Amino acid sequence: MKIAQLAASLASTALISTAGLAPVALQTLLTPPPASAQATGQPTNTLRGCFLNTNFNGTIAYNPTNIRQQPTRNSAIVGTFTQIGQVINFNGFTLGEAVPDSWDGQPDNMWYRTPDGRGWVASAVTKGYPPRATCNSKAEKFFTWAPGQQGISRYDLGPAYNGQCVTLVVRYLQDVYFGGDRSFRAYGNGKDVARGVANQHSNLFAFKTSGTPKRGAIISFLGSGYDSTYGHVAIVLETNGTSIKILESNHDGRATQSVVRISDWKSRAGVIGWADPINALP
């Protein structure tokens, strides 16, 4: 089936309108950003668990206590705490690389986010523990599951779409907003996805080009290192001023071999706009 015929057959259920899009080969519906546009650092495939925006106190127990860019021991050191006994009001926690606990020697994979949002401290070298919490929302379960998944597929359009950045966003919409219904699909290039989702699901998302994206927003890029024709699309996980962290696939151009990752902090250069969730995440 030619791409134009496929587009017509999907128009009634597509999340993205095909109007104005030139026919392109399936494998080129999204061209990933070149290496120069990829986030710095290594993909954090060890990141697991809910990212919970929770405030709690912890006490520095060692000098120095390193602050890591990502919740792994081989991630870049972006700062240190040097005052033993200093009480830190951490503002989030996640699960990362297991570190032997300094007190009982057992593996501890909890990491705490520093108040300025710049990095992570291993629970294993601090005193204190965050409130118990579980992933109850569909969105948080998706954000837990997705990192580290390889070549996520969109079941209804065939293997040419597997591993694409658009595919991750479609899977997010299907699983979180549409009860796993695989008939909901996005059609178009990464640059068009955010606007299309907001246009066709205005009861769920609002398209924005200014302000601060919410957690769970669908964000489209074009230019500033991204492909000038097809762009890129991802899901916003964190914001810090004008910087964001995104959940993305096909960031390395490997498609089916691409592993979904959470990026390091990156600027919003090249952002066209985003589809902001109107209500709390499901």
What can you tell me about this protein's structure?
The protein has 282 residues and is an alpha+beta fold. It folds into two domains: 3-44 and 137-277, endopeptidase fold (from Nostoc punctiforme) (Alpha-Beta Complex), CATH 3.90.1720; 55-127, SH3 Domains (SH3 type barrels, Roll), CATH 2.30.30.40. 14% of the residues lie in helices and 27% in strands. The chain has four helices and 16 strands. It has helices spanning 3-10, 138-145, 165-177, 190-200, and strands at residues 48-52, 56-60, 65-68, 77-81, 87-90, 93-100, 107-113, 120-122, 126-127, 205-208, 218-221, 232-240, 243-248, 261-262, 266-267, 271-277. Strands 10, 11, 12, 13, 14, 15 and 16 form a seven-stranded antiparallel sheet that branches. A four-stranded antiparallel sheet has the order 1-6-7-8. A hairpin with an 8-residue loop joins strand 3 (65-68) and strand 4 (77-81). The chain starts with a helix and ends in a 5-residue tail after the last strand.
Write the layout of secondary structure elements.
Blueprint: H1 3-10, E1 48-52, E2 56-60, E3 65-68, E4 77-81, E5 87-90, E6 93-100, E7 107-113, E8 120-122, E9 126-127, H2 138-145, H3 165-177, H4 190-200, E10 205-208, E11 218-221, E12 232-240, E13 243-248, E14 261-262, E15 266-267, E16 271-277
Antiparallel strand pairs: 1-6, 2-5, 2-9, 3-4, 6-7, 7-8, 10-16, 11-12, 11-16, 12-13, 13-14, 13-15
